[in-house]
Amino acid sequence: MREFLAADRFFFASHVEDKGYLEIVDGKFGQYYKTLPDEKVNIIDQSGKWIAPGLVDTHIHGFKNHDVMDNDAQGMNEISEGLLSCGVTSFLPTTLTSSRKHLKDVAKMLGEVKGSEKGAKIQGIYFEGPFFTEEHKGAQNPAYFSDPDTDTFHEWQEASGGIIKKIALAPERDGVEDFVKQVSDEDVVVSLGHSSATFQQASSAVEAGADVFVHAYNGMSGLNHREPGMVGALLTLNEVYAELICDGYHVHPKAAELVIQKMGYNRVSLITDCMMAGGMPDGDYILGEFPVVVKDGTARMKEGNLAGSILKLKEGVKNVVDWNIATPEQAITMGSLVPAISSNIDDSCGKIKKGRAADFIVLNPDMTLNATYLDGQERYHA
After folding, report:
1. Cβ count within 10 A of residue 200
2. pTM (two decimals)
3. pLDDT score recorded for residue 195
4. What mean pLDDT is reported for the chain?
């Protein structure tokens, strides 16, 4: 018997359809219909609800008391399953700066776990560091900072089984342009962050092939009328993407609105930068090698600096709508398709498309999450 998903609204990559039916065939998306075929069918009734692609979190360090850097396969599976409650169906486990050996070990573990995870799907790895600068270190350990080196990167990539999709670096490090050109030719996305770079240094890295800015405004040289810095670069350079943490703490809603208005919502990727305390009560936690205190909606290092977040991606998507800086369609695009495109994983996630795995979310009209489906099966219900 044919199976159809009935809902009030469907968010496709190019447009929105009101009231219709989407066929689910063997766990994959089928054809969309305005009226049902004239035959007996099974209906998954989501009347009054909206159907959107599963969210894609391309910058996330941990969840449910587990951290990617724990190098624990079971922990990764628990992160994977926990993310379904956030509306996330695909993600890039994100590393932190550490020793060359530990990063190699973590890359190997993630390569082995990919494909066997029980929840949100690992679509690759995001290496956040270690090619950063100390002034904007954040929760990264500067003891391991270095200039970019392709031999080291290839060691990590080989250990991962070739699944490192993105790596972040500071444009002012020595050898950046050659490194960016090399890894970009290998279809690895280069993002820019944790950096004191000048506008010219950031521009040179973009010219070499880098095209993403790590968590806009945070961990980067700010906008000054005489030296536009990293923030000036992300706001004015063409064909670049910006990650944006929309928890209301990392970036003021008006500052977030400026990025969306200037760059266009199709160039802004909503991320969480979530740490192990995501989905957990307030208290003391660890991010990488540093103690972090979670209280009143934020994760902070002992000296008070923000250290990652406890944001759920479904909340970031809802926030930009509640702040009146994006429409529901734009918010969903920034939480699914743009992260996928900007990380070169849009061939497998980020949109509702015939033949793709039926990974989708069911939203209430107020943008709260009702359910998460993976391969056509409901895996989380609010």
Report:
1. 12
2. 0.96
3. 95
4. 95
Strands 41-53 and 2-11: parallel
Per-residue tokens: 216? 């806009």
Residue with the two structure tokens 């015939």:
354
The number of beta carbons lying within 10 Å of the beta carbon of residue 13 is 15
What whole-number distance in Å separates Cα of residue 175 and Cα of residue 319?
39
SS3 label, residue 332 = helix
Q: Using alpha carbons only, what angle is made at residue 34 by residues 29 and 40, rounded to the nearest 5 degrees?
A: 75
Residue 1 confidence (pLDDT) above 80? no
Sign of the torsion angle spanned by Cα atoms 295, 301, 305, 308: negative
The token duo for 270 is 């909503």
Q: Cβ(34)–Cβ(290) under 8 Å? A: no
How is residue 34 written in tokens?
């305005």
Alpha carbons 153 and 381: distance in angstroms, whole number: 40
- Copy the structure tokens of residue 251: 């970036």
Give the pLDDT confidence score for residue 305 in this predicted structure: 80
Burial 335-351 (b: 16+ CB within 10 A, else e): bbbbbbbbbebbeebbb
Q: Exactly one of 57, 67, 247, 273 is catalytic; name it.
A: 273
Tokens (6 digits) for 75: 């922990």
The DSSP 8-state label assigned to residue 152 in this structure reads: H
Alpha carbon distance 260, 7 (integer Å) = 29
Closest residue by Cα to residue 270 from 246, 249, 247: 246
Between CA 282 and CA 291 the distance in angstroms is 13
Catalytic status, residue 366:
no
φ/ψ (deg, to 5) at 80: -55, -50
CA torsion sign for 247, 249, 251, 252 is positive
